[in-house]
Specification:
By secondary structure, this protein is mainly α. It is built from 17 helices and no strands.
Length: 425
């Protein structure tokens, strides 16, 4: 341990992972709480703005497409101008947009606010992955990315439904948005004070001798990871956007659960997702990225299918099946968007690569997929949206067969993708 402390600043490593984790948790809370509020019977948001419960999928889609495009563009910018210059303003803006969501007086105003929120949340994902990887000892990349990324599930999908349903009992939907946006301002200040820039930026950053944008795609996983991540994100965001409507819709159309019970069942998505995003990337440090991803996809698809066949009479069964479906679905996302993307990056392009992988997954999986699912739900019923998500997970399994293994313990490569220790700057 003494030798490790001389060559690696573990104090900074754990400090920045903690701050990234809390910040990404707030991103999840601000992002996922809209469909929950919109679809809750205790909320007047739909009536006030003329939105239907199924419109939650479309709103999630607009945000997801903006998130994805921004993750790539702003990740590339973070490689050129620095981490703090991109990360801190992004945190401030998404926090303000959460509050402004509660002030929207029309559908168009809400769409504009949520698109701006997506633009500002995307850099937290891509630049956050870069900051986490640069601060992490190579053998802890999966573990640290798992800790960082699991908070979006814990805050947004485990605590979010509980927070929303409880707050709506005594507050308007306008106030709920304001309350969940406020903590991000504090995190922006802390990030500015703590985040370090990579010590080797002059040697590995973009410039005359840096890797070209086109040359970023030399590694096989730079092409495979974005394609398979589309399937993982499609599963997650379709579930997040449509689940409350399915749980609370009258029997025949859905499961007919009351709002509090539905919120409790929905919490399985966040609890399972948080555990999966933490445990499987950490496990992938030992058994490999590819095996972990393949296992996650197939287990998520099986659990989600059985969830669609379960009735409302046993909420424990519903919660358990949803827990496992979410745990393995989020596990695949975390592995692909974190260590797989980072380990496919050429020197100086870490945030750019993470941003591109996230862009593909978000734009199609997080953006277009919920819109398709909303249309399917409107035509064939709410359950069809969940079938759509399960089929996407099966497709993700087959695409992931083409991944190349990159875990340092499996490949014996301690430095992959031009990642350099920050030291004790």
């Amino acid at each position: 341990m003494a030798q490790e402390n001389k060559s690696w600043d573990t104090s900074y490593e754990w400090k920045i992972i903690l701050l990234l984790s809390i910040t990404f948790g707030l991103v999840g809370l601000d992002r996922f709480i809209l469909p929950i509020i919109l679809q809750s019977p205790n909320s007047t948001m739909g009536k006030d703005l003329g939105l239907s419960p199924a419109d939650g999928g479309a709103m999630a889609g607009y945000l997801g497409m903006a998130w994805g495009a921004s993750a790539f563009v702003m990740g590339y910018l973070a490689d050129k101008v620095g981490r703090r210059a991109v990360l801190v303003p992004a945190i401030l803006v998404f926090s303000l947009m959460s509050a402004f969501s509660g002030m929207a007086g029309s559908v168009m105003a809400l769409v504009i606010v949520r698109v701006i929120m997506g633009i500002s949340e995307g850099p937290v994902a891509s630049t956050g992955v870069a900051v986490a990887v640069e601060a992490s000892k190579p053998e802890r990349r999966g573990l640290n990315n798992g800790i960082f990324q699991c908070m979006i599930s814990l805050f947004g999908l485990a605590l979010g439904p509980v927070i929303a349903t409880r707050l709506l009992d005594s507050h308007s939907w306008h106030t709920v948005f304001l309350l969940v946006g406020a903590p991000g301002v504090v995190m922006a200040v802390l990030m500015w004070l703590v985040v370090r820039e990579p010590a080797k930026r002059a040697d590995t950053g973009q410039g005359a001798e840096g890797t070209s944008l086109r040359g970023m795609f030399g590694h096989r996983n730079a092409k495979v990871a974005p394609l398979t991540l589309i399937c993982a994100m499609g599963g997650i965001f379709v579930i997040a956007a449509m689940l409350t409507a399915y749980l609370t819709a009258p029997l025949g159309a859905g499961l007919g659960l009351d709002p509090i019970t539905a919120g409790n069942v929905f919490s399985a998505v966040g609890v399972g997702g948080a555990i999966g995003q933490f445990a499987m990337p950490a496990l992938s440090d030992f058994i490999g990225r590819k095996l972990s991803t393949l296992a996650s996809y197939i287990l998520a698809a099986v659990a989600l299918y059985f969830f669609t066949q379960a009735g409302p009479e046993n909420t424990t069964t519903l919660w358990t099946l949803l827990f496992f479906a979410s745990m393995f679905n989020f596990a695949a996302l975390a592995i692909l968007a974190g260590p797989v993307a980072a380990e496919a990056a050429p020197p100086g392009m870490l945030a750019s690569m993470a941003g591109f992988v996230i862009f593909a997954g978000e734009f199609v999986g997080g953006g277009i997929s919920p819109i398709i699912a909303s249309n399917l739900a409107g035509t064939y019923g709410l359950k069809s949206a969940l079938y759509f998500a399960a089929c996407g997970l099966v497709l993700g399994f087959f695409v992931a067969l083409f991944l190349k293994e990159t875990a340092p313990r499996k490949t014996k490569l301690a430095q992959v993708g031009g990642v350099s220790a920050l030291g004790k700057a």
